[in-house]
Amino acid sequence: MDENEFRRVLELFPVVRSRDYHADLDFSRQSSRSGPSEAKKWQDAQSAEDKNEAFWGKLKSAAERKVGRADAERFCKAFQQVYKKLVYEELTLDDARKIMNSATS
Questions:
Q1: What CA–CA distances, in Å, run from 94 to 11, 15, 40?
Q2: What pTM value is reported for the model?
Q3: Which of 40, 64, 66, 74 might form a disulfide with 36, Cβ 3.0–4.6 angstroms?
Q4: pLDDT 10s digits, 34-79
Q5: Is the dihedral of CA 72, 49, 81, 91 positive or negative?
């Protein structure tokens, strides 16, 4: 899926967070509380994994309704590649802002 086609399909979905949202701000609020037990950390990790799987499932279902099964599969694979690149290659906040600003121009 090329970038233009990916952006076209992405535009079909509503924005759920503002462009100036920063997850690290939410994390800093949470980390100021007393630390959870080891068992609680494992439960939270499992819960996060379940939520992650649920997110990808919901994304695929929504994409299928909007563009059909074949295009939804391609879109979800492209979306996962972009997500992994941004998350696992530790894109800096400045670089992320550049990407977001380029999308609006």
A1: 23, 20, 34
A2: 0.49
A3: 40
A4: 555 766 666 666 676 777 788 889 889 999 999 999 999 999 999 8
A5: positive
